[in-house]
């Protein structure tokens, strides 16, 4: 398994607006190897909010195939053109990738 986390540092009080953008998946769910997408909101910081988009994939190559897909390009078109209504609310972001080496679930 492969997990990718995109952590967005967001203007204080704007997490709900950013998280709303991820309420629908717009094609990622059709990609080979896609397992799940979770959107996490951290409101514990005083100076900003944090929205983390966590996707789980069968393998690293599946995630990289998503990044080069037409669906990905379509979803990120407004961001790339500078016309996204969400991008101005995002102060910074960091993408990290993880190999899952242990996974425990409820029995």
TrEMBL record:
Keywords: Monooxygenase, Oxidoreductase
InterPro entries recorded: ABM_dom, Dimeric_a/b-barrel, Heme-degrading_MO
One function term, GO molecular function aspect: monooxygenase activity
Top-rank taxon: Bacteria
Record has GTP-binding as a keyword: no
ABM domain: residues covered: 2-91
PANTHER family: SIGNAL TRANSDUCTION PROTEIN TRAP
UniProt name for this protein: Antibiotic biosynthesis monooxygenase
